[in-house]
Design goal:
Shape: globular
Number of helices: 13
Order of helices and strands: EHHEHHEHHEHEHHEHHEHEH
Oligomer: single chain
Radius of gyration: 17 Å
Number of domains: 2
CATH architecture of the largest domain: 3-Layer(aba) Sandwich
Distance between the termini: 24 Å
Strand content: 15-25%
Strand order of the largest sheet: 2-1-3-4
Largest sheet: 4 strands, parallel
CATH class of the largest domain: Alpha Beta
């Protein structure tokens, strides 16, 4: 099929290898990949801050650009939830409500697309390391994505997945939350990092680069050896 990859701001600006990995994986699986470079933000920062009127013009550009896409794949539970769940709320009772509902049916978080849509779990990846997985809030709670990333990791050669006790606990980032409440955000992140350390993992893996950036910042400032890496980058190691 033709897969349209929507690359979130965080990935585009700070973690481009995540986007590259997704494109390479999808092309190896035989799909045609489109990347609309004219799209950037999905409107979530304004939406989450309560500025819905300001978020709509940004979101409408995305909605119109993706209206003919066969499938939209996003390497983020956060931005994936914005397009799949919150666009319905944002455009409710507007002339664009039907378009938002139609787009919702074609939007997939990356790991869920591979496992639930394509039926793929083994990508031939090789990543010899001990890892633990962080469930991002939006991916877990809004999209219900829990099993797909673990199914994919279970097939990676040389990888040992060790679940941490606080796998489903918020890391404290939350976008604007980390800016508005830095002390609370840091305290929440410390809890997550401590739980990951208990597993003696080499890496924290997640579907969200924003969460990983937050956690890596905390770990690096403390001089901790554990690193963070997006699921797509693990799956692209061969």
């Amino acid at each position: 099929m033709t897969v349209t990859v929507f690359i979130p701001c965080f990935v585009d600006l700070a973690h481009p290898r995540v986007g590259v990995s997704i494109v390479q994986i999808l092309e190896r699986l035989g799909h045609r990949v489109e990347y609309p470079a004219d799209l950037a933000c999905c409107g979530q920062p304004a939406f989450n801050s309560g500025y819905w009127d300001e978020a709509r013009p940004v979101a409408l550009r995305v909605l119109e650009r993706l209206k003919n896409a066969e499938a939209v794949v996003i390497p983020s539970g956060s931005c994936g939830a914005m397009l799949k769940v919150f666009y319905r709320e944002l455009f409710a009772n507007t002339p664009h409500a039907a378009a938002a509902a139609a787009l919702s049916e074609r939007v997939w978080e990356f790991s869920d697309f591979l496992v639930s849509k394509l039926g793929v779990t083994d990508l031939g990846a090789h990543f010899p390391a001990r890892v633990t997985f962080h469930d991002g809030c939006h991916g877990l709670r809004e999209l219900g994505v829990k099993k797909p990333p673990r199914a994919l990791l279970s097939k990676v050669r040389g990888l040992e997945l060790v679940e941490m006790k606080e796998a489903e606990t918020c890391c404290g980032f939350g976008g604007a939350f980390a800016v508005k409440f830095p002390m609370i955000s840091t305290a929440m992140g410390d809890v997550k990092c401590a739980s990951a350390e208990e597993t003696r993992a080499d890496y924290i893996v997640s579907n969200d680069s924003s969460c990983l950036m937050h956690l890596q910042g905390l770990l690096s400032r403390e001089g901790k050896p554990i690193r963070t890496i997006h699921l797509a980058e693990v799956l692209n190691r061969r």
